[in-house]
Specification:
With 226 residues, the chain is of the alpha/beta class. It has one domain (9-206): Rossmann fold, CATH 3.40.50. It is built from six helices and nine strands, in the order E-H-E-H-E-E-H-H-E-E-E-H-E-H-E. The chain has helices at residues 11-30, 43-53, 80-89, 108-125, 180-183, 199-206; strands at residues 4-7, 33-37, 62-66, 68-70, 135-138, 163-167, 174-178, 189-193, 221-224. The protein has a six-stranded parallel β-sheet with strand order 1-9-8-5-2-3. The chain has a three-stranded antiparallel β-sheet with strand order 4-7-6. Helix 1 crosses helix 2 (43-53). The model has no long low-confidence stretch (mean pLDDT 98). Bound molecules: 6-phosphogluconic acid. The site of 6-phosphogluconic acid has 15 residues, from loops.
């Protein structure tokens, strides 16, 4: 597969419909939809649109993970969980047990290990060697970072663990992130990028520019707002 660029007219609603289509297909095929939410600011309007257009989705068959989290409390303004909770998780009727929150408020090493075990338990039950997301959403930073995988970080070279603590230049610095083995185990990865200011870095990622961590993600779908 090569990268698939989708230039969307209505970024939020068209992205939401794309996610919804993938959800319906996964539920039809496998009885559940395992979705990983991206952090940052871009996804907020998409998640709100998803809650709106996805009213009749069987949310009890959706399992939510987070591709990264800042090491802050869940009610902190910088929490990716809080952003998802405000835009989607308090609107869509998704059972609390279906939402796998990364506990950013505790010791990062403990939180990462706890999350690793949570994903491993589901994977084992489903006969997977590594948890397989149906759709894994990611953002992209101007420096080519994605999730909390930043240029120059040793986290870029993790080959075994799925979830690790890390430090990044984008505040808040202490984070927990998915690793490339987990990201690339997904059936599909979709980047969400609204600003055309990121056009050049997208092109560089898509040709595999090694300066950019996002280049280590397998060929993906790009939901573009420009
Ligand atoms: C985070 C995100 C990060 C984000 C990009 C894009 O926790 O900060 O995981 O990877 O997706 O930095 O952020 P914006 O969507 O705010 O531009």
């Amino acid at each position: 597969m090569i990268h698939q660029n989708l230039h969307l007219i209505d970024f939020a609603r068209d992205s939401a419909h794309y996610i919804l289509d993938r959800a319906r297909a996964a539920i039809a095929d496998r009885g559940m939809f395992r979705l990983s939410l991206a952090g940052g600011n871009t996804p907020r309007e998409i998640y709100a649109a998803l809650a709106d257009v996805g009213r009749d989705l069987p949310w009890n068959k959706v399992q939510i993970t987070f591709s990264d989290e800042r090491c802050v409390a869940p009610h902190d303004k910088d929490s990716n969980f809080r952003m998802a909770q405000e835009s989607l998780l308090t609107v869509a009727p998704i059972p609390g047990g279906n939402v796998f929150r990364i506990r950013g408020e505790i010791d990062p090493g403990v939180a990462a290990a706890e999350y690793e075990a949570k994903l491993a338990a589901v994977a084992a039950r489903l006969g997977e060697t590594r948890y397989v997301h149906d759709l894994l959403l990611l953002g992209l930073g101007p420096d080519g970072h994605t999730a909390s995988l930043f240029p120059g970080s040793p986290a870029l070279y993790e080959e075994e663990r799925n979830v690790i603590p890390t430090i990044g230049p984008k505040p808040p610095p202490q984070r927990i992130t998915f690793t490339f083995p987990l990201i690339n185990a997904a059936r599909e990865v979709a980047f969400l990028v609204k600003e055309d200011s990121k056009k050049k870095v997208i092109e560089e990622v898509q040709i595999g520019d090694p300066r950019h961590p996002a280049s280590k993600v397998k060929p993906a779908t790009w939901l573009l707002g420009f």
